[in-house]
Amino acid sequence: MTNHNQNILVICGPTASGKTSLALKIAGLLPRCNLLSVDSRQIYQDLDLITGKDIPADLSPNIKLYGLNLVSPNQIFNVSDFRKYSQKVIADSLAQKIPLIIVGGTGLYLQAITSNLLTVHIPPNSVLRNELEKLDLQALKKRLRELNPVKFDSLNNSDVNNPRRLIRAIEIASSSQSPSANFTEIPTHSFAWIGLSQDKALQKEYIQKRVLDRLEEGAIQEVQSLLKNYQNRKLPIFSSLGVKQILEFLDQKITKEELVNLWTLAENAYARRQMVWFKKQPDIIWYDRSKINQLLVEKLAKVITKND
């Protein structure tokens, strides 16, 4: 029988805050452990360096990783698909009484798999999307404001200036399908949320080092391979952080130095957006990355092995 009292640890936080490293330390103290990566870009194959799939070569066979390399870059895989996939990982882990750690920085995906987020089940409407993609930002705002003023007023500055998010909001507002149709209630597992934060200056240092390391390890060659295998530059992977800047470098629009600077700036801006989102979630217990010690790692390992 599934044990609904088993705690599931969720480790969230901005990019380059040490989430995966902490998860692996906790998992290393347990006889068995499942790790579910929640990252909207790590689901794609052929994008290992740029998305930072930092998997140690000597990973213990007792630790199983989920959520990576689920689809090829030209396949559609949205938040609803990820939620279905994750529900199975969660259900199987609970049924087999294997401790589970969910690790990620993609807020919407984390929310979708840990709460009953109804709108993820409204499917994309390609006819409407084609029509909306021809509109400029102001026209999209006007359309959403007319359709759902409450939704429009709830958007933050980043959302309201993001055509992709406006199009999705219009799609949801225009759908005749009730959000609760095809909706599977998530059992009320006990999700224990912790967040990793760090000093802003240190975060910038970590991000810059990571950008330089990825370039040194072959990030440019990774993008060249992608271009060879997938010519359609409108695929979501080509708008990923890092890929976008490397494309500009390969198109000779920017120098190598500008590539480093622009990629680093984009990662820093993304980290800020992540923190804005996470700070709105009331259940997260925050830890400073520099204060993580063995005692805390052991304490967190106990959190997910408690079956009372």
Characterise this structure.
This protein has two domains: 7-119 and 180-303, P-loop containing nucleotide triphosphate hydrolases (Rossmann fold, 3-Layer(aba) Sandwich), CATH 3.40.50.300; 124-174, no CATH class. 29% of the residues are buried. Strands 3-2-4-1-5-6 form a six-stranded parallel β-sheet, sandwiched between helices. The longest helix is centred in the C-terminal third of the chain and has 24 residues, at 256-279. The protein has helices spanning 19-28, 48-51, 79-95, 107-114, 126-132, 137-147, 149-154, 157-160, 163-174, 200-217, 219-229, 243-250, 256-279, 294-303; strands at 7-12, 33-38, 63-66, 100-104, 190-197, 285-288. The protein is built from 14 helices and six strands. Helix 2 links the parallel strand 2 and strand 3. The chain is an alpha/beta fold. It is globular.
